[in-house]
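hi! just following up on the protien thing from before. the input was this:
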Amino acid sequence: MKNVTDSFVSLGHWPSAGSFGFNTDILATNPINLSVVLGVLIYFGKGVLNDLLDNRKQRILSTIRNSEELRKGAIEQLERAQARLRKVEIEADEYRKNGYSEIEREKVNLINATCDSLEQLENFKNETLHFEQQRAINQVRQRVFQQALQGALGTLNNCLNSELHFRTIRANIGILGAMEEITD
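and the predicted 3d structure came back as:
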């Protein structure tokens, strides 16, 4: 205790202004200064420190609450996006399946239409060939008939004399007359 009182007493004795030096008596200077500074800090800084810590605590809690809300919102958005993705994938599969079946259906329809067209063309070709054959046959018949008629006329003209000609005409007139009497 004597040292403590001596240190208070020695406070009254300051070295002269011309000299500069260190006070090496640690027990005399530092604990007193530290206790005074700490006492002032605790007394005046206690409220400020509590306010700073309370503000910091409130900001941390607010940040945590906001983070939780954002996390929940993000989870909800992720779930909605995953559900929408599943729905779109299902629709894409349906479109793909429907598209393939539609393509197959169109392919079958096109093949059937082509077969029908080919069949109609074949029928038309056969009809055209038949018509052309009939026309050719008719032309040949007409020529043969004309040639036979010309040959027969030529032969008749050479073989018939006027007497035979008159008899043939009279016979034909008689036949026509008999036919006329029958119809009356």
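The chain is about 90% helix and 0% strand.
Residues 7-17 have pLDDT under 50 and may be disordered.
cheers
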